[in-house]
Design a protein that fits this description.
This protein is mainly α. It has helices at about 5-25, 30-35, 45-65, 80-100, 130-155, 165-170; strands at about 110-115, 125-130.
Length: about 180
Amino acid sequence: MPTEFESIRNWYLYNRVARQAYFDTLAKLPPDELTRDRGASFPTLLDILGHSMGGIETWIVRMSAVNGERFKSEEVPEPQNLDDLRAYGKIVDGWVDQFFARLSDGDLDREFLVPKLPPWWDEDFTTTFRSTLLHVIEHELQHRGELNALLWQIDVDPPILDWGEFEKIQARGHPPGR
């Protein structure tokens, strides 16, 4: 039976593998479909995917400062197209790997201060690594569901990955996201 830490880490690996399938699906679309404003949470398919990955970056970088040396997010250029997003994803995935390498079950209860950041939140607050890591998982799943709905609207089947298939991929020894 996996520990809570191992289960959370597996969710990050699952999201990474699923995200790669979205890159592959979006790569098959005409460029105008990727950049068309769809009136969703963020205007375009690329914007939604980029925002989702930005959430991972924001929180992992913030927690890295609490748990060791802070990762340097200011060095990451703003993604402009699908290839940029793929490159950005590799950077973010590397930070996730480094962060989890420094983390243990006992760290899940660590608290840290999150300074206010309008318009997202208007007050400082304290949270735990556990709560934040679970929030980031939910955030990505939420936006992936949004991508699914938008892809269905243009008659494109989204690359849905169920947990059982993910476990088969892992059992075959394929590296995450490849």
